[in-house]
Design goal:
With about 200 residues, the chain is an alpha+beta fold. The protein has five helices and twelve strands. The protein has a six-stranded antiparallel beta sheet, sandwiched between helices. Strands 10-9-11-12 form a four-stranded antiparallel beta sheet. A two-stranded antiparallel sheet has the order 6-7. It is globular and about 50 Å long. The termini are far apart.
């Protein structure tokens, strides 16, 4: 796993079975990540939304050890950190395939890759929970959080702007978190609070 020592520069979270999932924050990072994986000649599961504007998310584990639950959690994460969240897509779906199926044509713009062969398409319900993973504030699929007491708040896409949400969270959470931590944790777009789990 040494190739991914600096995984926190990407979008990332750990599934409920402790598998690290990482994805590019930009077209340039998507290219960087996939070129690295291709050069390693290792096989990983890759997830991308069926529509453009998504991280290429990698589940960094032996494919044989990746469960349906891992895939479900990584699929939610990928959709939530894509344009689907920003556009409040009602029924987003993701495509699931292997890293060996990816190719990069000379004329393809940054962040664009082709996929050879069959892909599995999976519908996703978008929602996230704010918690800490590896002592870092993260928005992750609720299913990946083992102890529900560790959930601070649950969101879905909505009309509260990211800036408003950060200000609201900073007020509600007190001095525990900085605004920069909150900005880094949240996806781009608007929010609707499903439920607070902290005491007001």
């Amino acid at each position: 796993m040494n190739e991914f020592e600096n995984y926190q520069k990407y979008k990332w979270f750990y599934t409920s079975s402790e598998k690290l999932v990482i994805g590019g924050k930009s077209a340039v990072q998507n290219d960087e990540l996939l070129k690295l994986v291709k050069s390693m000649k290792k096989e990983y599961l890759v997830i991308h939304t069926s529509s453009p504007g998504s991280p290429f998310s990698l589940i960094l584990a032996d494919i044989k050890k990746v469960s349906k639950k891992d895939i479900e959690e990584a699929s939610i994460f990928t959709a939530c950190f894509s344009q689907c969240w920003k556009s409040m897509a009602r029924k987003p779906s993701v495509d699931i395939f292997r890293s060996s199926q990816l190719y990069k044509g000379k004329d393809m713009k940054p962040g664009t890759w082709g996929v050879i062969g069959d892909v599995e398409e999976k519908p996703v319900i978008m929602s996230l929970a704010l918690t800490r993973q590896q002592s870092v504030l993260r928005c992750v699929p609720e299913q990946s959080i083992k102890n529900k007491k560790d959930i601070l708040v649950r969101f879905k896409p909505g009309k509260i702007s990211k800036e408003e949400m950060v200000a609201k969270l900073a007020t509600e959470l007190g001095e525990h978190f900085s605004q920069s931590e909150l900005l880094n944790a949240l996806p781009a777009g608007g929010f609707s609070i499903i439920r607070w789990t902290i005491k007001h």
